[in-house]
Amino acid sequence: MKSRLLRSMLLGVAIAVASVAPAADAPAKPVLKAGVLSPVMPAPQLALGGTDGKPLNLAAYRGKVVLLAFGFSNCGEVCPITLATLAGARKKLGADGAGVQVVYVTVDPERDTEAQMKKYLASFDSTFIGGVGSRAEIDAAQKSYGISSKKNVNPDGSYTIGHSSSIYMIDRAGGLRAVMPYGHPVDDFVHDLKILLRT
Amino acid sequence: MKRRTWWFVAALPPLLALGWAGLAPIELSTRDKLFEIPKGTYARRRAGDLVDILPSRITLTIGLDDVLLLRNLDDVPQQFGPTILMPGQSFRLPFERESENRFECTAHSSGQMLVIVEAEPEWPWQKVRWRWHHWSQRG
Fold it and tell me: Which fold, B30-138?
């Protein structure tokens, strides 16, 4: 009787130990750090002016990976971090950084003139292009990408704007491939850009 | 068989199960946690139906089910957080850090979805707790 009990216990222990063995086929990690859209659809076009003095035409950047984001030059918190991150990613890519175009569209057309945006973006990276236009044109651009923004007026009459802060990744064929939420480090962008520049 | 032996035999299976739940690696077939916006969601909203189709709070676990997969099966675009999901399109968003994330979501009557990302369970009691929650949610 005792030996039968012992055998049962040993069998139980053997089963438990066998089940603790590491899994052979763990599910694969996602390829990109950003959120991926599938199927990929064409990125909505923007009817805006660019800080390079030309109409902002996303189709003109086919062959490059476009990082598109929305913000404003008086932003004290989110935009400087985003722009510094994107500049850092381009720099870290070295020569491959030339295949990346950052486009930053204002959500504050009342203050962000073409000259103001150009100066602001150049303080991060001289290759960055800003998107500017009338309130109606900016509203249309925001709507096409699902960008929300809200003006918060201070007691002294000055204001700031709360806005969506994700970065849209448009592939070399002009497809809206992925969306990187705010807060990812430079290395995450470098990781994804290397993949997008290869495909 | 002696009474003491019977007690021992009766206690062995639950002890083994508990040991397994605390020590065995957690294995899932996919890291995706799928949520679908069903066809007709927009029409229901327009008709004044405020029933939530998706949970307003989702918990993900790093290393296990740390990818939020949203699929829009509706006939109209739906907005989730930073992106617009066209009909038939899906959005696969991975998380790598513990965090609480609040997203705008047009599929919710409240217009908001909270995604909580928890650390991977390492200690046995954490694994038992995770399994318990996972199974109770499935049930």
Answer: Immunoglobulin-like (2.60.40)
